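agent> step 3/5: call structure_predict on target 'ABC-2 type transporter transmembrane domain-containing protein' (marine sediment metagenome).
agent> reason: downstream docking stage needs a structural representation; sequence fetched in step 2, passing through unchanged.
tool.input:
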Amino acid sequence: MGYKFYKLLYLLPLIILIQIFLVIGATLLVSSINVYFRDIKHLLNIFMVIWFFATPIIYDIGIVPGKFRYLMIINPMTVFTILYRNIFYYVNFPAQLGY
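tool.output (status=ok):
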């Protein structure tokens, strides 16, 4: 009874650290743009909704048609979603991150 501790969980702090750096960089970029353009917060709300659905969180990347696959390639959060899914759901080493 209980949870079996997998060796892959040692990768989790590294993945979280890299994701934190990405989020901090994006936050600094948007906040510096917001100083000059005050309406960026309204555009950011729309962008975040689109970004949520462009990230394969609630669906697998394999079901995306080929003509929309470029959205997955340019999305930096797709890599983290694949890494988290491989570690927690499939319990295998994320050997290949190529799309």
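agent> step 4/5: record observation. Helices lie at 12-36, 40-54, 69-74, 77-90.
agent> proceeding.
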